[in-house]
TrEMBL record:
Keywords: Signal. Gene3D superfamilies: At5g01610-like. It comes from Kalanchoe fedtschenkoi (Lavender scallops). Residues 1-23 form the signal peptide. The keyword Iron does not apply. Pfam families: DUF538 (PF04398). This is Uncharacterized protein. SUPFAM superfamilies: At5g01610-like (SSF141562). It comes from the Eukaryota.
Length: 108
């Protein structure tokens, strides 16, 4: 009986570990947490449109991938176009190696 109890306990510990990793992963994938991630890296949240559906982040390299529900354009000092998939590398105070975005200067 003690052997079965030990197996049950091991399974419960394993299940709890898997669930906690899944919960942390799910929380990290919400668009709100991407904006929090930008703030934590000293960047404004307005760098990325509000239509984020999901994102991934490699915490070691800072490499990220943001998924938008549709491509869009936003006007800042110039017009910036966002594809549905934007990738780059996040470090404190800057984003480098961007793809999936393009800016066009407006000449008057």
């Amino acid at each position: 009986m003690q052997m079965g109890s030990r197996k049950s306990r091991s399974l419960l510990v394993l299940l709890a570990g898997v669930l906690s990793v899944f919960a942390a992963s799910s929380a990290a994938q919400s668009s709100d947490s991407f904006y929090s991630l930008l703030r934590a890296h000293g960047l404004p949240i307005g760098l990325v449109p509000q239509n984020i559906t999901n994102f991934t982040l490699d915490e070691t390299s800072g490499r990220f991938e943001v998924y938008l529900d549709r491509s869009c354009s936003v006007k800042f000092e110039s017009e910036v176009h966002y594809e549905t998939n934007v990738t780059g590398t996040l470090t404190y105070g800057q984003i480098g190696g961007l793809s999936g975005m393009s800016a066009q200067d407006l000449f008057l």
